[in-house]
Amino acid sequence: MRALTALLATLPLLLLPACSSEGKKSGGGATSAAATPVPSWAKGMKTVPRDRLPAEARKTLDLIDKGGPFPYEKDGTVFGNYENRLPKQTRGYYHEYTVPTPGARNRGARRIITGTHAERYYTGDHYETFEAVVQP
User: Fold this and answer.
1) Reported pTM
2) Where in this protein does the record put region Disordered (predicted)?
């Protein structure tokens, strides 16, 4: 009985190195999606890495980064944030860009919203929900 008690008492000490960060082998870098840092403006929001967006959204982001040309007349216009789903800012802070929706006869529901300080938001449901676009 004493041997069993002693074994049970030392068991946590034997397992402790396997649970600590020093006990892990170095793998040479992070591999999870959580490794992408979340910018301060996106804290508390659902985030999506740029490479997980639909291909059309990535193409729209590329056009935004290049300054156009944009395929839709309303691209680049002020986004009013009337739904108050993005952080409150002064009028003119946000701008919207169309993300083409395959098969849609009009602009569709998908948009990229940009902020003055390089913020990028994606909505696939016409402003009902937003995800902050994070880039490595």
Assistant:
1) 0.72
2) 22-51
